[in-house]
Amino acid sequence: MEDTTTLSVTKPIRCIVKLGGAAITCKNDLEKINEENVEIVSSQLREAMITGSSSRKVLGMDWSKRPGKSGISCDADDFEDQNLDSSSFVVVHGAGVGLQSDVHSLLVKICDADLLFLPSGSFGHFQASKSGVHKGGLNKPLVKAGFVATRISVTTLNLEIVRALAREGIPSIGMSPFSCGWTTSERNMASADLSMVAQAINSGFVPVLHGDAVLDDLQGCTILSGDVIIRHLAAYLKPEYVVFLTDVLGVYDRPPSEPNAVLLREIAVSEDGSWSVVKPTLEDMKKQVETTVAAHDTTGGMATKISEAALIAKLGIDVYIVKAATTHSSRALSGEVKGALPEDWLGTVIRFVGKGNRNC
Amino acid sequence: MEDTTTLSVTKPIRCIVKLGGAAITCKNDLEKINEENVEIVSSQLREAMITGSSSRKVLGMDWSKRPGKSGISCDADDFEDQNLDSSSFVVVHGAGVGLQSDVHSLLVKICDADLLFLPSGSFGHFQASKSGVHKGGLNKPLVKAGFVATRISVTTLNLEIVRALAREGIPSIGMSPFSCGWTTSERNMASADLSMVAQAINSGFVPVLHGDAVLDDLQGCTILSGDVIIRHLAAYLKPEYVVFLTDVLGVYDRPPSEPNAVLLREIAVSEDGSWSVVKPTLEDMKKQVETTVAAHDTTGGMATKISEAALIAKLGIDVYIVKAATTHSSRALSGEVKGALPEDWLGTVIRFVGKGNRNC
């Protein structure tokens, strides 16, 4: 399905990070970034990527004019003695273009090759839902206009995230799936050339991709979610681990706002793709979770997250779902919680157990 | 050199338009868009593209929140009876990342495959010149940071142009050459996959490309100018005509600010690539222009423009160089001045004469 002929990464990818829409935007506010969270997350990413960077002066790479300022401050000399060598990370952020009311039918239609995380974030959502971009039909003026409006909204968010990362000294490069030539066929990924992503990584950059409106062979257009992108990147780049940053501590057995909701700490995925809760060891936990799905998917979407994460875990890649901008996210990003989970780390890890090896 | 295997445009391209940096930004102001010009140019483009559009209500496609506003106004119903069919245009805008002080050496080094228009515009220039991105060397922290900063600046401009066009009801789609996978080899175009541009056109969109920082096989990175992009697009998409929008009326025989500067109205390009001024018929005009180049290229760059435009004209494609946001630009964009030039049209046309046919 993918064109991997030209794909070759010269050094291993350490981590693919999903910045969930709910974590980086103000969910109930139109096109508003959660500046504080984005700043903390960017700083945590810098510390995880660049060894010893926490004690150093941050050399920002966003030399654009800031609102209200007339000039740019950039001291070129400061860069001379800097070693910016960093381990390879890829960032993908949500676009928030999922459609709550439509999510069940979407999940049914798009089958397992295109499972969708639930809507979150405030960019792209209005534009996509107003026009029905995900349903296709570019011959309709409203859909075509909505496609244009959605891409404007999600690329605006992308630019802001790239700038926030660059301000923290992360060599971030925005890459839109649409421009990279990623297309779908009846909503399933049809082509996703990763060669440019690989080249950017090989040149020492951190690609920043995002959920996007893309062309579809059969229905004209659709929405490609950040989570589908993550899964494809994980399959072909084989990172050491994947971190999903969200706005709750991790995956719960029911919507986290409900009383008695229990944080699932560790989920094991077996060879046949089924999964079970290892920690906490509540009896029949898996069944409880499944039961919760039907009633609550539109309010939390965590069961969908498990299914999606399980597909990545099945590749032998540990997946951490953790609350953004906390000590827990910092520890997950740095890889500190690999292996035995520290008792004081709060989050959910989803791991492949298979037959005791990491290949499947 | 190009990967054209997957390139196929289903309907002919009418026009490729270059929005010169000098025309769309405030040249002497850091990262400031010339809002008035951009708005007029966008409106002229809409009228040229969409037949009968001047009498219709403009249905904007930028549904993003505007500064100071809390919501978005978009009346979905308005789109129902719209026929948005438009002839195919491609827009390329300058990035202003050329380097004045370095332009002569650049022109020498990059040979005829990579002729460079002179610097203009206020986006990307500071970032690129501060770090020397065009010279390559991504292993240097300053160059790597400058690459990131340059891309942030030029994609900021791209987003603003896309939004301005969308506000006028033009289905514009931003496409960064970097993300499209365009790379150079020792500053010459090495790969420029046009398939995604073609697909966007076939789906009824107007791709909006821009000068960009790109990866280079040999020197790590460089700057790919909007004009090199235009020439490649022209060679493979074969538009009916190409329009360069700039901040002076056209090409003069010397810097337009000088007394007695004469506007060159028509330039003929012959089969061997040489060119001569047909109108006005001043004796030895060509030699005068050439003499002017050495002394004044850094102040106006018009001779460089002629050489570049001549390469496009040699393909049998008329090139119009015209002042943005005037009646002259409107007439050039609409194709009204094709054929015999109206006496009251001010601008420069560069045409292939060859042996009386349009093939070369």
From TrEMBL, chains A, B:
Pfam families: AA_kinase. Residues 15-322 form the Aspartate/glutamate/uridylate kinase domain. It comes from the Eukaryota. One of its GO terms (cellular component) is cytosol. The keyword DNA-binding does not apply. The keyword NAD does not apply. InterPro entries: Asp/Glu/Uridylate_kinase (IPR001048), Fosfomycin_R_FomA-type (IPR024192). GO terms for molecular function: ATP binding; isopentenyl phosphate kinase activity; kinase activity. GO terms for biological process: terpenoid biosynthetic process. Keywords: ATP-binding, Kinase, Nucleotide-binding, Transferase. PANTHER family: GLUTAMATE 5-KINASE, ISOPENTENYL PHOSPHATE KINASE. This is Aspartate/glutamate/uridylate kinase domain-containing protein. It comes from Populus tomentosa (Chinese white poplar).
